[in-house]
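quick one, 166 residues, struct below
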Amino acid sequence: RDERGCHIIGYFSKEKESADNYNLACIMTLPQYQRMGFGRVLMQFSYELSKAEGKVGSPEKPLSDLGLLSYRTYWAEVLVDVLVGYDGEISIDELSHITSFTTQDIMHALFNLDALRYYHGQHCIVLSDRVIEAYERFQKKKHRKIDPGCLKWTPKVFSQAELRYI
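---
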């Protein structure tokens, strides 16, 4: 919103029902609003809707090169934020429940962070000093965010008859 009113900055389409656990079919930020954090806001919004549904999800595949890079960055930022603020042990399934990310997306993000280790017969998540320093730099910057407390949305529950037409 500015002195001329509200503007469309981007778009995403929500998957109603997906056998592949897609929470989003298409995401787009208009060119003049790219690299301003709006794509990240749309990603966060899609996951907040998934949380409200009590589902885990992932964007529809295949992702474009820029889409894959953007999602990997988003997943990594959110996971590091959860892990830094978490006290104790946590499983991949628990991370999935907290974030609404699929376990596959979590594993890819942790692998890209080089945060997976094998120690005494168990897989562990270990955040390096480099990752923690990047997280601290990220936290110092101002970012656009969705306030989940302001989300007033009730997911539609489809009957079997309605699902035939989706």
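The chain has a mean pLDDT of 88.
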